[in-house]
Write a structure and sequence with these properties.
CATH topology: minor pseudopilin epsh fold
Number of strands: 15
CATH class: Alpha Beta
Radius of gyration: 30 Å
CATH superfamily: minor pseudopilin epsh domain
Strand content: 15-25%
CATH architecture: 3-Layer(bab) Sandwich
Largest sheet: 5 strands, antiparallel
Helix content: 25-40%
Number of domains: 1
Strand order of the largest sheet: 6-5-4-9-10
């Protein structure tokens, strides 16, 4: 056996201790090493977790950046207004002339960046409206199609004459009415017009490392950093990821009267006393 670098010979063969020629550790030394490894892993775990959270935040920033660039480029190249329409799961590019979404920009609500309940964004240009106050795309699309079918039936659109009239010069693809939804519209010269709300001053974005407000802010549950985005009058998008004093609680939204967001109240999930007369919390 090994005992402090010595090998004990079999007593029957003469039980003298001779040098083993190899190093060894006592049980206490092994326990100390294991304790150090555990402590180091505990210290490194938050750092690694924050690293992956920030990587995801940076990826979501890329989602907005790609959509902005494609919508602006389409408006300039095609010489017609193109909009970014905001939904709970993210943004879609909308052709204002065809009244349809751009098929060249793929969008899947199930895999979109904000389909996860761990991340959300706030529209600073639209009274700090959180994405949780916006309609889910699939349900909104379903309602749109149902409304259009009802209008067609009421107008006798099912008759052969109506179908022939509708096929002449009608744009291909599903048409949608995005009135009331938050959107930004890029003009033919690349400039941007706020369809809802108004621009947050770029000076506020530049003056402070962590702005009080920005055109778009992206938050993540448990993350002490956030992404701030500034939209310039000529359509350029600037962004920065900055540390916060503390992680921002995920908001709950009450008082939303319509999908257009005519009125909303942003209430954070902070513990507060309740009277017996109040109902159960959602």
């Amino acid at each position: 056996m090994v005992f402090h670098g010595w090998i004990a010979r079999n007593p029957k063969r003469g039980g003298n201790l001779v040098p083993s020629g190899i190093g060894a550790f006592t049980l206490i030394e092994l326990m100390v090493v294991v304790a150090i490894i555990v402590m180091a892993a505990g210290l490194m775990t938050p750092t690694i977790t924050d690293f992956f959270k920030n990587r995801k935040l940076d990826g979501i920033r890329g989602h907005f950046g790609a959509a902005f660039n494609q919508a602006r480029l389409a408006a300039v190249n095609q010489g017609k207004p193109m909009s970014l329409v905001f939904f709970r799961e993210g943004v879609r590019i909308y052709d204002e002339t065809r009244h349809a979404f751009d098929p060249k920009y793929s969008f899947s609500p199930d895999t979109a960046p904000f389909s996860s309940d761990k991340v959300w964004y706030v529209l600073g240009f639209d009274r700090k409206k959180p994405s949780l106050a916006l309609p889910e795309y699939k349900q909104w699309e379903k309602n749109q199609k149902a409304s259009q079918e009802a209008i067609k039936e009421a107008a006798g659109a099912g008759t052969p004459a109506a179908r022939t009239s509708r096929s002449r010069g009608a744009p291909k693809g599903q048409m949608f009415n995005v009135n009331g939804l938050p959107k930004l519209t890029f003009q033919r010269d690349g400039s941007v017009v706020f369809g809802t709300g108004s621009d947050v001053s770029s000076s506020e974005f530049s003056a402070r490392q962590v702005p009080d407000n920005a055109d778009i802010i992206i938050y993540q549950v448990g993350n002490t950093t956030a992404c701030f985005m500034d939209i310039r009058p000529m359509g350029q998008l600037r962004s920065k990821i900055e540390p916060l004093e503390a992680a921002v609680p995920k908001p709950t939204v009450d008082g939303v009267e319509s999908s257009a967001g005519d009125r909303f109240e942003l209430e954070y999930e902070t513990p507060k006393p309740k009277s017996d007369s109040e109902g159960e919390e959602d």
